[in-house]
Amino acid sequence: MSFSCLRNVTRCGMVKVSPSGALVSKLWGPCVAREVQTSAPKAAVAHGTKPDWNRAVSEAEKIVGYPTSFLSLRWVLSDEIANVALHLRKLVGSNHPLLKTAKNLIYNGKNNMQAWGLIVLLVSKAAGHSPEIPDMEQDKAAGVLHSQRALAEVTEMIRTSHLVHKGLVNMNAPQVGPGGPGGPGDPDDMMFGNKIALLGGDYLLANSCSELANLRNQELVELMSSAVRDLAEAEFLGERDEQNNPLPSRPLPKDHMEAPLEWECVLQPLPMGGVAGSARREWAARHVLAAGALLGKSCSATLKLAGHAPALQTQGYLFGCHLALAWQPFLDLEAFSGPEPRSFSLVGAPLAFTLQARPELYELIEQGRRSVHDVDYHKLYEAVVAGDGIEQTKQLQREHIRAASHVLDSFPNCDARTALANIIVAMHP
Q1: Which cellular component terms (GO) are annotated to the entry (predicted)?
Q2: What is the pLDDT of residue 238?
Q3: In whole angstroms, what separates CA 207 from the centre of its chain?
Q4: Which pLDDT value is given to residue 383?
C-alpha cells in the first residue's frame, strides 16, 4: 500500500508529490519523492576513497565560510551561556542526564548531529538564490543569504533546546541509584539539574523564536513552529516508563494491524493510524517527529528564503527527512558494533525488527514499565545478534541514503552538492 505524505499545502509553499511505490512498499516511510530510484549514492570523492566523517564535515564548513553551530564564539562568550556552564559544573559527580547531554553537544564527533546547521547552509548554497534578492542580504563570500545563516542557527537552537529539555528528571518517580547526600541520585542534585535543564532549554528556545521573528516571514514561522510541535509530539509517542524513556509497542500480526493512514508531514500533525505494532512504521514515525521533520522543514524553509519554487522546496524537505532517517540507523547500530553494552535503545531499529520476528521477547520489555533499567538487556542483545535485525537495519539505512542521494540530484552540480554527497557517503554502513 502506498502512503502520500505531501499535500498541496499552499500556505507553506509545498506541492503535491507523487508517491514512489518501490520505495514506499519497502519503507512505509513518511517522505516520498517523485520516482525515487534505488541507485547507489554518488559523490565526487578523490581517487574513489570513502570520505571520513570528520573530514567531510570539515571540508563542508570551508565551503560555507566557517563553522555554523550556534556553539560558536559569540555564543560561548555570552553571559547567559557562561552562567549556565558555571552552574553545570556543580552537577559533576551526579548522575543527572543533563551532563551526558552537554558532553554530546560539545563532542563534535560522528555520534551526534550538530552538523544540522551546516547541512541547511549547504542546501542553501547548492540551490543558490533568486537574482531579485538585494545584494545587502547576501553573504557573497559564503554564497548564502544572511537570513539563511540565521535560519541555520535557529535550527540548531531548536534541536539543542529539545535535547536539553529531555534531560529533565521526574522527581515524583523512584530514583535509581544510591541517594546519599551529594552522591549519585541525590534529590538536591536532581532538582538543581532540572532547574538548569529547564531554564537553559527555555533560553535557547526563546532565542530561536526571537531570531525566527526577525526574519519577518509569516509562512516561515508557521513552518518552523510545526517542527517544534513535532518535537513535542515525539515525546508522547508510544509507551513510556516513569522517567519518560520510550518503550516499543507490542508487535502485532499483519492481519491485526490497523489500516495505515496517509501521512501529512508538512504542516498537519502526523496521523498515528497503523503505527502501533508495526516495527518499520513505528520507527519511522518516531524519528520523523523527533528529527526528520525539523531538518526537512529547515531545508525547505531555507529554499523559501532564497525565493525558489514550491517544487524545489518540497525536494529540500524530502532531502532533510531522508537524511535524518538515514542517520538514525547509524546511532541504533552503535550498540551492536563493539563489546556488549550495559544498555541500548529499546526503540532502535535492530530491536524493533527482532521483536517483530520474535513477539515473545516483548515479555522482557514489559519488565521496564517502571524503569528501563529493569529490562534484561543481555537477553535482548543476544536475540538481536542471533537474528537478522542488524542486517535489516543496515538495509533500512541504505534505502534512505539512496533516497536522499536521488533527491540531491535535483540540485545543480556544485561544490556544496558534492559536500552533501560526501557527508551521505560517510554515513554509509
Answers
A1: mitochondrion; transferase complex
A2: 87
A3: 20
A4: 96
Find out whether 116 and 159 touch, Cβ atoms under 8 Å. Answer: yes
Cβ of 206: how many Cβ atoms within 10 Å? 12
Pick the closest to residue 234 from 197, 284, 164 (CA basis). Answer: 284
Residue 170: per-residue pLDDT: 83
Q: Can you tell me the distance from the alpha carbon of 319 to that of 159, in angstroms, rounded to the nearest whole number?
A: 18
Containing 318, the helix (H) or strand (E) segment is helix 310-333
Phi, psi of 261 (to 5 degrees): -95, 165
Q: Among all chains, which residue has been given the C-alpha cell 519503507?
A: 27
Q: Is-contact 113 329, C-beta < 8 A?
A: no
Ordered structural domains, the chain, with CATH: 53-173+181-427 (1.10.600.10)
Task: Indicate if the alpha-carbon torsion angle 169, 298, 282, 230 is positive or negative.
Answer: positive
Instruction: Look up residue 143 and give its three cell numbers.
Output: 554564497
- Angle between helix 389-408 and helix 349-357 axes, rounded to 10 deg: 130
Nearest alpha carbon to residue 380 among 405, 351, 400, 359: 351
Answer yes or no: are the C-beta atoms of 123 and 302 closer than 8 Å: yes
Look at residue 280 and give its three-state secondary structure. helix
Phi, psi at 204, each rounded to 5°: -65, -45
Q: Is the separation of the CB atoms in 87 and 197 below 8 Å? A: no
Q: What is the mean pLDDT of each run of 10 residues along the chain (429 residues)?
A: 35 39 32 35 45 79 72 57 68 73 62 73 92 85 89 91 87 55 61 86 90 94 95 91 90 66 64 81 92 94 94 91 93 92 94 95 93 94 96 95 92 92 85
* Helix, strand, coil in percent for the chain, rounding step 5: 60, 0, 40
Q: Angle formed by the axes of helices 310-333 and 389-408, to 10°?
A: 150
CA distance 119 to 115: 6
Rounded to two decimals, the pTM is 0.81
**Residue 305 exposure: Cα atoms within 13 Å on the Cβ side:** 31
Q: How far is C-alpha 178 from the chain's CA centre?
A: 33
The dihedral built from the CA positions of residue 360, 365, 367 and 370, taken in this order, carries a sign that is: negative
pLDDT of residue 31: 35
